[in-house]
Structures are given as C-alpha cells and as structure tokens.
Amino acid sequence: MQTVTLPIADPEAEPRAEALLAAGELVALPTETVYGLAGDSASGEAVAKIFAAKGRPRFNPLICHVDSLQMARRVAVFDETALGLAERFWPGPLTLVLPLAEGAPVHPLATAGLSTVAVRQPKGVAARLAGRLDRPIVAPSANLSGRVTGTSAEAVARSLEGRIPLILDDGPSPVGVESTIVRPEAGRLVLLRAGAIARETLKEALGVRIETPEAGAAIAAPGGLASHYAPQGAVRLDAMRVEPGDYVIAFGPDRPEGLEHAMAIINLSPSGDLAEAAANLFAALSALDSPDVTQIAVTPIPMTGLGEAINDRLRRAAAPR
C-alpha cells in the first residue's frame, strides 16, 4: 500500500480523509496531544485494521473521539461528575471512561468487549472529521504497538509507511503526551493514565479524591500495558551518572556526573519547564530509536504536574520487553 502525506492546509486533505474513513479505511491525523490512527468507530472492519496496522493486542481498548458533548452522550452514560469534567476540560486532552450507552455507534472490538467506553472531545481535525461522519472516530496513537509514539507526520511515516493510505501533516504535536484518562466514581476519580492534564489540576477543579488503580488490575483504558513507548535500546531511569556508551536524555540545567562520556545529549527542557519537556519527550525517544543506540540514560524528572505523565511514559519505555 502506498502512503500519501498531505499538509492539513491542503484543500483536498480533509475531504480525502473523510472519504477514506467513510469507506472503512484508516487515516493518521494530528491532535493536540499526539498523532492518532483514526478509523470509523462503528465499523468492525476499520477497527480491526487499526489493530492489524499497529500490531496492537485486542484486549487493549481504543478511545472514541467526538465533536461535541451531544455526540459523546450517544456513546456513553454521563453522571453529574462526568458532565462537570466534560464542561470544564473539553475540547481538550481529557479522556473519560464511562458506562457504554445502549445503541452506541461503537463496535465491540473498540471497547475490547468491556461494558465501558473511553471518550474525549479533541481540538482540531479529529473533531471535525467525527462531525463530518456524524459518529465518533477511534484513534489510538499512530505508531506500532509498544513503540515510540509519533508526534510528527515524519515519525508516523517511519512507523506506519505502507500500512495506511493517508497521513495528515500539521507539524509537531503541541502537547506531546497523550490525554489524561480518568474513571469518575462516587466522590472520587480513578486516574487510569497520567497525561496532559495534571492530577493537581483535576483535584483543584473538582475538589474530589484522585486515586490510582490497584496493582495488577485488569486493563480498563488505553495505554495500560507495562511495556510501551519503547525505543530499541535499553532505557535507564533516574540516572545520576553517565556511563561510557550512554545516550542521554536530560532535563533542566543540572549536569550529571560523567556527562563527558555521553554519545549524544538531548535535553527535554534546559530551563526545567515540564510542559516543554512533555512536548519534546517522544521526539527525543524517536531520535534515539535506532539499532546503534543500545543504552539510554534518563536524568531525574520531578513527579509534580506534567512530570507524572512524563515519568509514566518513561517507566513504560524502560520496562522489560
């Protein structure tokens, strides 16, 4: 299959994407978080193509992207807490895991057979295309499963060239990490995946407890695999010393001991800005995703704010394969 890349400003880009999605084909497209691999949520054929193109395990559910709260309520059952979250954070990088609505236009493959569904209203072309189709599109990250997430059209092409017909190019993703995923429950939120909206922001907005799932809990949301976002080389976290042969991902102005041994250095944010670091994270991992790079040392990154999401992705990148 030939893969074509079109800039989002091309007048043919969105109509071509709409036609492909309506025909059950796949399109890689930008969102404010990362690039997604989009398909028609109601089409079992399209959803199956997403799993095949990514090599994604079928027990790993997908996120439904909608153009409005009205469309979201055709997909999921909203309680008062969920409505408050949607009104506060949509459109934006927050995904809600909610009970699946009766008659929802979502194929069971997309929910991995669960009685819940992950749904969010993004900004930009993903929402516009859902509106054109008048139903959600499912769009996991546009990369091979378990490998580095694409935050540019070039990164998507390196991963999925020849597997999909179209990539829409809108430059680098502005946020750079995936959406935060929460499951609203009585009097609390369960944080299923740290992401672009920090735990502290959610707590301040709602004034409720933010809890994490118990260790070993079944996967209830996308991005729950232990090993994910992985480059080819081994990743060592919280590195206070650089060893000979290390490629270094750094953060902030501090210089770890032995930095002169580094084969190369990528600083996610020399000033120590976590938002800048999040935007640069996957591009840095992608730049070091090569058979020649056998060891990657990552210096410590704070766990506050967006640091929780950054450290979550790095832990998964460093997990046993």
Produce a short descriptive summary:
The protein has nine helices and 15 strands. It is an alpha/beta fold and 321 residues long. The chain has two domains: 4-79 and 97-175, Alpha-Beta Complex (DHBP synthase); 234-318, Rossmann fold.
Question: How would you sum up this structure, described in words?
Answer:
Its EC number is 2.7.7.87. Required for the formation of a threonylcarbamoyl group on adenosine at position 37 (t(6)A37) in tRNAs that read codons beginning with adenine. It comes from Jiella endophytica. Keywords: ATP-binding, Cytoplasm, Nucleotide-binding, Nucleotidyltransferase, Transferase, tRNA processing. It catalyses: L-threonine + hydrogencarbonate + ATP = L-threonylcarbamoyladenylate + diphosphate + H2O. With 321 residues, this protein is α/β, with parallel strands linked by helices. The protein has two domains: 155 residues, DHBP synthase; 85 residues, 3-Layer(aba) Sandwich (Rossmann fold), CATH 3.40.50. Helix content is 28%, strand content 20%. The protein has nine helices and 15 strands. The strands form two sheets. An eleven-stranded mixed sheet has the order 1-8-2-3-7-4-6-5-9-10-11, with helices on both faces. Strands 12-15-13-14 form a four-stranded parallel sheet, with helices on one face. β10, α7 and β11 form a beta-alpha-beta unit. α1 crosses α5. The chain is globular, with a radius of gyration of 19 Å. The two termini are 29 Å apart.
